[in-house]
Amino acid sequence: MRDVTNVVIIGGGPGGYEAALVAAHLGGNVTIVEEAGVGGSAVLTDVVPSKGLIAVADVMTRIRKATKLGLVPADASRTSLLDGVRVDAVAMNERLLKLAAQQSADIQARLNEEGIRTIRGKGRLDGTEHVIAITPDGVEERLSADITLVATGTRPRDLADARPDGERILNWKQMYNLAEMPRKLIVVGSGVTGAEFASAYHALRCEVVLVSSRRMVLPSQDSDAARVIQDVFEARGMEILSQARAIAARRTEDGVIVTLEDGREVEGSHVLMAVGSIPNTEDLGLEEAGIELTPSGHIQVDGVSRTSARGVYAAGDVTGVYPLASVAAMQGRNAMYHSLGDAVAPLNPRHISANVFTSPEIATVGVTQDQLDSDLVRGRAIMMQLHSNARAKMQDLNHGFVKVFCSPSGVIIGGVVVAPGASELIHSLALAVRRRLTVDHMAQAFTVYPSLSGTVAEAARRLHGHGGDEGISY
């Protein structure tokens, strides 16, 4: 009988706890060292509370549409159902933090059931075969590690002249401490985080100014999708300052002033700084262990999450591969499958599905429009507007589309969905990409009528039979 393998995981976020569960299942003796609480920032201060906030905003969006659907206030003195709704910021944020804490507790309970030890504290490598765990009261424990996984995540990036104070100048981890709804929220940064918070707070009837350094919001997304979101934001009354770069923020007596690079100043009650993130790779003993970092400070890993040091793996945002909880989880699982001798396939970026939780949402998988347009990938595409879908008409959905990409032979290689619930609709396309299904496979599968998923199948039907690279339709 072989000796039990000691697995030590630094960081208890999705990459860490999913890796721990796999390692325990495969017979490892597993210890997690986590400073804030299992679930990490994804559960405690990022994904769970932010998507909970967006769920509240979605309710407000539905209420806003109620009059068009024939729902009017019983009190004739009110012109809209929204007139009778007020956001209780304290109650809302307390609920969001409670949800996060409960999710963390549920994960901890599962880890306990599997016999996984959790140490509350910081961890650092001591060579490649030991990890030092340091508890909050300074007690150190040296752990033997046959396999080590580093999953320490990232933290919000700060500007030197816009340091968060947790009251008026905020990063995204601090948004759930607000005791009142902002009178006017300035959001600096129009990437995924900035766009999601801007969308949510604007739906919650907060005046929002979005400061975007680019010509269009969401510059990393499909350009057609980004254009829809920008058009929706502006149609709903959000102010977008395009090609504007914030360089400073300062408090006033009852608010903030954000200074732009061109000298303009923007006044508001609060400002959210969403200007990127920094990997948590300091003071971990990485360089001493021979672990290579990228120029951005992320840990360099291969397709199965190996670092340059024998026996040391890394997973999640700290690797800079994709800042997604689902990717972190997959990287963590792959690391344990590989290190403990189970079958594993390298992470394939084209199989990753991602979502932007604006209203409407943007979901993507596989190859991109840019890759097709630049001839990096040969294929065909079709884009179908959502407003022609019967279910969309019933729900008064006027913005969005389904875009499907296929190879010249008809194999589905990617897609984009812009719609409410796009995060659910993308799964069929993700499965098609993963299993190399053809447009005929997709077209011939039954869909419910009426349903938004019917547009996915209709797009596949439209792609049937088009030869070569023809058939691109917008």
Walk me through this protein's architecture.
There is one protein chain. This protein is 30% helix and 22% strand. It has 12 helices and 23 strands. It has helices spanning 14-25, 40-44, 47-65, 89-113, 192-203, 223-235, 325-339, 369-373, 390-394, 422-435, 439-444, 453-463; strands spanning 6-10, 29-34, 117-120, 122-125, 130-134, 140-144, 147-150, 154-156, 169-170, 184-188, 207-211, 239-241, 246-251, 256-260, 265-268, 270-273, 277-279, 312-314, 353-356, 361-366, 380-385, 401-406, 412-419. Strands 3-2-1-7-18 form a 5-stranded parallel sheet, covered by helices on one side. Strands 9-16-10-11-12 form a 5-stranded parallel sheet, covered by helices on one side. α1 (14-25) packs parallel to α7, α3 (47-65) crosses α4 (89-113) and α3 packs across α5 (192-203). The longest helix has 25 residues, at 89-113. It is globular, with a radius of gyration of 24 Å. Residues 6-332 form the FAD/NAD(P)-binding domain. InterPro entries: FAD/NAD-bd_sf (IPR036188), FAD/NAD-binding_dom (IPR023753), FAD/NAD-linked_Rdtase_dimer_sf (IPR016156), Pyr_nuc-diS_OxRdtase (IPR001100), Pyr_nucl-diS_OxRdtase_dimer (IPR004099).
